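From the shared-data thread, chain only:
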Amino acid sequence: MATNTQHSDIDELSSTRYALLRSYKKDGAPVDTPMWFAVEGNSIVFRTKRGPKTARLRAHPRVELTACDYRGRKLSGATVFTGTATILEDGAAAEANRVLHRRYGWQWNLVPLIRIPGVTQVHAGLPLREKWSKARNRGVWDDSAIVRIDFGS
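Structure, as tokens:
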């Protein structure tokens, strides 16, 4: 698959609910993660739990993105996009979180908290009280980061 970074082609991602993020470990080994995202201009934004992925993105911000299904299987004929990841802070993170809320609606805070067979949900094992608190929180979760991936022109 050819790598493409034209804005009109990034709109291809808008028609899918999931994208496969490929980040890289220190040794260069790829790590693929399916995720929800929103397209904003010539970039996309997504939420992730702070931890190994955010450490990888800080150390190696160059990433690849392609449309996939909820289990991370690439869609046939999907374009591979190459971009640079930035972990957003404060107001930028809050605005991107609102964009993600608009795209996914009520599911945005609920789906990460439930068990889905064949899908890793990092928040699914939380106690019920914590799940209830997260489900009602429309802001950026304390243990989460909002990431923007910018695509070159």
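The radius of gyration is 15 Å.
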